[in-house]
Amino acid sequence: MSKTSNKGGKTRSNEEVFAGFQSLRNEQRQLANKISELEMDLNEHKIVIETLHAVEPKRKCFRMIGGVLLERTVAEILPELETNKERLPSAIQALNEQLARKGQEINDYIEKHDIRVQRGAQHSAEEPSQDSSSAKSNVLVASG
């Protein structure tokens, strides 16, 4: 492997470029996973709130917060759940904006380092030739 990527003024090896790309992709996956987790929490809050509306307010109720089980009444827990349910969409929206910015950051990184992403089994007769132009670009092969 040769040293490439002179666009930013610094010379970086293909391994360093690939590691930076993988790091950005991992951050993007983490954001997507967090968004998914919060959307599931929002759905759970909706289900629990619907269920608790049908229960008498003085009834004993348990709530798990950070691994600790709290004993309260339905009347105490219901307003807290409704407040959390109202806040979750704004948190999800903020994470979606971060995810969009991370996607743009990845695209900028790909452009800056002249990276071509190929999927595992899709490279066929269009293999890059070993001329001077192909020596200047990085190729990442993503499996799956």
TrEMBL record:
Residues 114-144 are annotated as: Disordered. One of its GO terms (cellular component) is prefoldin complex. The keyword Chaperone applies. Gene3D superfamilies: 1.10.287.370. One of its GO terms (biological process) is protein folding. Keywords: Chaperone. One of its GO terms (molecular function) is unfolded protein binding. InterPro entries: PFD2, PFD_beta-like, Prefoldin. Heterohexamer of two PFD-alpha type and four PFD-beta type subunits. Belongs to the prefoldin subunit beta family. Binds specifically to cytosolic chaperonin (c-CPN) and transfers target proteins to it. Binds to nascent polypeptide chain and promotes folding in an environment in which there are many competing pathways for nonnative proteins. PANTHER family: PREFOLDIN SUBUNIT 2 (PTHR13303). This is Prefoldin subunit 2.
